[in-house]
C-alpha cells in the first residue's frame, strides 16, 4: 500500500529469517521490480545489486537480510525503510536504518 499511487518511491524492507525474506520478495516481485540480498549472496553480487537499486528507477524494492545488510551499504535511493521483523539487538536495527540516512540522501526517511 505504501507504493500505490507513487511511481518513484523506493522501499527497503529488512527481515531476519530467510523464509520471511522469500515470502516478502515472492509477493512483492509479482508487482514491483526489486532486489533480494541475504547471507548467501556473494559480496561482489551485493555490490551489483545495490548499484542496480540505487541507479535503476524501475527497481523499487530491496528485500534485505538485517544481519547481512545492516552495515556497509548505501541505499539513499530509498526514502522508506520497513522492518518486517525486529532483531534482538537495537544497535543492528539502528545500523540498518542508517543505510538510508547517509550522505546523498535527498528525502526525508520514513521508518515503518
UniProtKB/TrEMBL annotation:
User: Which InterPro entries does the entry mention?
Assistant: Helicase_C-like, P-loop_NTPase, SNF2/RAD54-like_C
Alphabetical GO CC annotations of the entry are: nuclear replication fork
Quick one: a GO biological-process term for this protein?
replication fork processing
Keyword tags = Hydrolase
- SUPFAM superfamilies hit by this protein: P-loop containing nucleoside triphosphate hydrolases (SSF52540)
Annotated Helicase C-terminal domain residues: 1-112
The entry lists its GO molecular-function terms as: hydrolase activity
What Gene3D superfamilies does the database record attribute to this sequence? Answer: P-loop containing nucleotide triphosphate hydrolases
Its name, as the record gives it, is Helicase C-terminal domain-containing protein
Organism whose genome encodes this protein = Ramazzottius varieornatus
Amino acid at each position: 500500500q505504501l507504493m500505490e499511487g507513487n511511481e518513484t518511491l523506493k522501499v527497503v524492507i529488512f527481515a531476519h529469517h530467510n523464509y520471511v525474506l522469500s515470502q516478502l520478495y515472492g509477493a512483492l516481485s509479482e508487482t514491483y521490480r526489486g532486489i533480494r540480498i541475504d547471507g548467501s549472496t556473494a559480496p561482489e553480487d551485493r555490490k551489483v545489486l545495490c548499484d542496480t537499486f540505487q541507479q535503476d528507477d524501475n527497481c523499487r524494492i530491496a528485500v534485505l537480510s538485517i544481519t547481512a545488510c545492516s552495515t556497509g551499504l548505501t541505499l539513499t535511493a530509498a526514502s522508506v525503510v520497513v522492518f518486517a521483523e525486529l532483531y534482538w539487538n537495537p544497535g543492528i536495527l539502528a545500523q540498518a536504518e542508517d543505510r538510508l540516512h547517509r550522505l546523498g540522501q535527498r528525502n526525508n526517511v520514513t521508518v515503518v
